[in-house]
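Section 5.1 Outputs to date
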Amino acid sequence: MFYRPEDGHGLPHNPFNAIVTPRPIGWISSRGADGRENLAPYSFFNAVAYTPPQVMFASTSAKEDRGDTKDSVANIRETGVFCVNIVEYALRDAMNQTSGPWDKETDEFELAELEKAECETIACSRVAAAPANLECRLTQIVKLEGESNFAVFGEVTGVHMRDACIVDGIFDVLTFNPLSRMGYRDYTVVREKFALKRPGD
């Protein structure tokens, strides 16, 4: 099968995000200038550089109470900071609860009954129960092609890791099993790993 996205795929559901899979989930916490907290998952997310460490996530829709975007981007525009909370399998239901189209007054931490912890390098809350958190300062917001498509880039200024996840000097993801997004309503979980030696190493 071949299709041009501009012509449509002719399938019951869009296969695009099922093809680009699995994708890590950036559970983004932010705080608006008014002090309101927000927490929302984004599957268009990844790390993009080592030095300095940088991450990005993309928001691809809008809410009526936020104009051209959603709560996360609106808050980050105002304050210039955000935190990436890593999603483990055990927090899947809480993560899903925060994915709803809640109004900007809703505190998703409270909605999902998640304990907050204050970040160290930025004025923002983080998910206390997450196996890792990346505190970020905004570097740029890039308007992408299409309505309400924005890519948000940030430099990591602080890193929290659960002590039990550090095994023999490495951050071992099998101690908490990261959740990843697939297509449609599907998710997957990391339960095994293997190593490959790159040529020249």
